[in-house]
Amino acid sequence: MNTVLHIGTEKTGTKSIQVFLAMNRRRLRDRGIVFTKSLGAENNRDLATYAIRDTEFNDDALSALGIKDRQSRSAYRSGVDERLKSELRDIPAHSRFVIFSSEHLQSRLKSPAEIETLKSLLARHGLQVARVIVYLREPADIIWSLYSTALRNGTTDPPPANPERPHWNHICDHQHTLSIWADAFGRDVVVPRLFTFGRESGQDLIKDFAATAGVDMNDLAVPLLQNRALTSTGQTLLRGINTRLSLADTDLDLPARLRMVQAVSDRFSGTPAPVPSTLRAACERRFADSNEWVRRRYFPQLVQLFGVAPDADRGVTTAPTVDDALDAFADYWQSERRAHLHDRT
């Protein structure tokens, strides 16, 4: 059966696309389109975790699953095989194609061998990849968004000034991504789309994905925008909270900390903090050749791949006020009160 793989990249609205597919799963199924759930209800991350060849077992998903040696990985892979087999066995006879979506396919599968492992798994279950959809975003914007996620996860690092981290380089090197996936599935199968400035509005992204994947949008629900960006104030507050509440503290009440982070994120999300000019300039130097290769190969009609970037350090970056801090604390207090009342019922 034909299969569509949506592989990311990270920070290109993947959560919104996955929520769209999940909330319309039944209607899509009636139309002959299967969005699987045995490998993840929204993010089908088990596909990536299955294929990853982390010999040190340091990947966060492997750690979370308790996979720390070859034996436990083999057992996990057998479980993935069986779950996928069971789900595909029960799909309607009129099904036309299957969709898998996970940004971790691009960010975690870094070698041709890993992608071949994925390809072999799918082929074993009669799934032939007809389309690989990947959204490409300006590297500085990806890294800046990844930094906001890191703040939500507890980092105390200062804002990045350059892209020189292996994980960032892998995600942002679009030439490498398109090359290794095209080598595995064919250039005509790989369909890059540009996640351009302003597409974060959500609906335009969903419509673009649906058209590219071959999904009729008629009568399908469209979710609200997921994972909104942190404002400058939100970034500063979270960095300060992380500094004072270190994740290294084993006595830290993690659920309570997560509720605090959510309170800050909810109140201080919206217009993103401006990308530092040093980071944007460093990314332009680092990825110029890669972006130009992608432009020539896939988007020759464009003068440059991502157009003109917004002015560096656009907007005003201000320190949080006392009122900002009090608002965040009040939101957190309310969330704690709700959690306490829930625990008593």
What does this structure look like?
There is one protein chain. The chain has 345 residues and is α/β, with parallel strands linked by helices. It has two domains: 2-146 and 165-213, Rossmann fold (3-Layer(aba) Sandwich), CATH 3.40.50; 232-271 and 315-344. The chain contains 15 helices and five strands. The chain has a five-stranded parallel β-sheet with strand order 2-3-1-4-5, sandwiched between helices. The longest helix has 23 residues, at 322-344. It is globular and about 60 Å long.
Oligomer: single chain
CATH architecture group name of the largest domain: 3-Layer(aba) Sandwich
* Whole-angstrom Rg: 21 Å
Number of strands: 5
| H and E string | EHHEHHHEHHEHHHEHHHHH
Spatially, the strands of the biggest sheet line up as: 2-3-1-4-5
Overall mean confidence score, pLDDT: 88
Beta-strand fraction estimate: 5-15%
Characteristic key phrases:
2 domains, 345 residues, globular, alpha/beta, single chain
Structure at a glance:
By secondary structure, the protein is α/β, with parallel strands linked by helices. Helix content is 52%, strand content 8%.
List strands and helices in order, with pairings.
Elements: E1 2-6, H1 14-23, H2 25-30, E2 33-35, H3 46-51, H4 60-64, H5 70-89, E3 97-101, H6 104-108, H7 112-124, E4 128-136, H8 139-152, H9 166-172, H10 174-185, E5 190-194, H11 203-213, H12 232-244, H13 254-267, H14 277-298, H15 322-344
Parallel strand pairs: 1-3, 1-4, 2-3, 4-5
Helix pairs in contact: 7-10, 8-14, 10-14, 13-15
